[in-house]
């Protein structure tokens, strides 16, 4: 069984006319692997969250990216020697290794969910509490769009 923990709750807000955003980040433990999903763009927040878990960037085994928007991927620079996975490719240095169905050496199912971005994918994870889906961006509204649509989040 996998364990999953949301390390960072993502945010998108406006401050002084500037959009500020970083994705939610999840930590999955499966078969002695530590998989970080969407490391986000706020370096200080990610390092603080890892430290709180007793982890350093080098303790992470794999990085899974739900899609390639900068608010989800900028912090991959903290993991220069780690495999980066998307919906069907493992990026290992200059190698692109195809896979399908599940993250290799785990029971974590990868589900392509194009829409928000062409390459978007979700993870289906079996835990003791039941099945959990890590979905990246379920929806996205800028502050201006939320005001226009009168959306309260």
Q: Mind sketching the topology for me?
A:
Layout: E1 3-8, E2 11-15, E3 18-22, E4 25-30, E5 33-37, H1 43-52, E6 62-64, H2 70-73, E7 83-85, E8 89-92, E9 95-98, E10 109-112, E11 121-127, E12 130-134, H3 143-149
Parallel strand pairs: 5-6, 6-7
Antiparallel strand pairs: 1-4, 2-3, 4-5, 7-8, 8-9, 10-11, 11-12
Structure write-up:
The protein has 153 residues and is mostly beta strands. It has a single domain, classed as 4-Layer Sandwich (Metallo-beta-lactamase, Chain A). It contains three helices and twelve strands; from the N terminus they run E-E-E-E-E-H-E-H-E-E-E-E-E-E-H. Strands 1-4-5-6-7-8-9 form a seven-stranded mixed beta sheet. Strands 10-11-12 form a three-stranded antiparallel beta sheet, with no helix packed on it. Strands 2-3 form a two-stranded antiparallel ribbon. A hairpin with a 2-residue loop joins strand 4 and strand 5. It is globular.
Distance between the termini: 32 Å
**What is the name of the CATH class?**
Alpha Beta
Radius of gyration over all CA atoms, rounded: 16 Å
Q: What's the pLDDT, averaged over the residues?
A: 90
Low-pLDDT regions:
none
| DSSP summary: helix tally | 3
Topology order in helix (H) and strand (E) letters:
EEEEEHEHEEEEEEH
> Domains counted in the coordinates: how many?
1
Largest sheet entry: 7 strands, mixed
The helix content is 10-25%
Could you say what the CATH topology is called? Metallo-beta-lactamase, Chain A
What would CATH call the homologous superfamily?
Ribonuclease Z/Hydroxyacylglutathione hydrolase-like
């Amino acid at each position: 069984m996998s364990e999953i923990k949301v390390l960072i709750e993502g945010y998108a807000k406006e401050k002084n006319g500037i959009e500020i955003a970083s994705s939610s980040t999840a930590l999955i433990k499966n078969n002695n692997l530590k998989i970080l999903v969407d490391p986000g763009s706020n370096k200080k927040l990610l390092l603080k969250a890892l430290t709180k878990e007793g982890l350093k960037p080098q303790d992470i085994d794999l990085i899974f990216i739900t899609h390639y928007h900068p608010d989800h991927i900028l912090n991959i620079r903290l993991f220069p020697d780690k495999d980066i996975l998307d919906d069907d490719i493992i990026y290992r240095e200059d190698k692109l290794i195809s896979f399908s169905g599940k993250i290799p050496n785990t029971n974590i199912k990868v589900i392509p969910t194009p829409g928000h971005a062409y390459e978007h994918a979700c993870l289906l994870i079996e835990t003791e509490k039941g099945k959990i889906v890590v979905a990246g961006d379920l929806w996205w509204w800028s502050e201006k769009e939320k005001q226009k649509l009168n959306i309260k989040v």
